[in-house]
Amino acid sequence: HLNYTESEGAPLGNAVLAAMGAKLIKSGEEVKNWLSIKSENEPDQRAYRLYNDYFQLYKRLYEHLKDDFQERYRFVGS
């Protein structure tokens, strides 16, 4: 994961998206030459695995509870 300097900011991102939409830029790869890299981070694999475990649990819980939440809504509204 690359962290870019903040000096470019959102206006540059908006200009890039507009240029891509107008077909003035073929891909985001061309834009990389315009940016300055501030730092590079490696993902924390332990944190990724833990997050993924919790996300899988969330999906199972959601599947088991979604009907109950719909029924609750029928009783009391939003």
Shape: elongated
Strand content: 5-15%
Helix and strand content put the structural class at mainly alpha
Order of helices and strands: EHEH
**E-strand count:** 2
- The end-to-end span amounts to 40 Å
Percentage of residues in helical conformation: 55-70%
Number of domains: 2
Largest sheet: 2 strands, antiparallel
What low-confidence regions span 5 or more consecutive residues with pLDDT below 50?
Answer: none
Mean of residue pLDDT values = 85
The radius of gyration over CA amounts to: 22 Å
Q: Within the largest sheet, what's the order of strands?
A: 1-2
Q: How many H/I helices?
A: 2
Protein name: Carbohydrate kinase FGGY C-terminal domain-containing protein
Organism: marine sediment metagenome
InterPro entries: ATPase_NBD (IPR043129)
Kindly describe this structure.
The chain is mainly α. The chain has two domains: 1-42, no CATH class; 44-78. The protein is 58% helix and 9% strand. It has helices at 9-21, 45-76, and strands spanning 2-4, 37-40. A two-stranded antiparallel ribbon has the order 1-2. The model has no long low-confidence stretch (mean pLDDT 85).
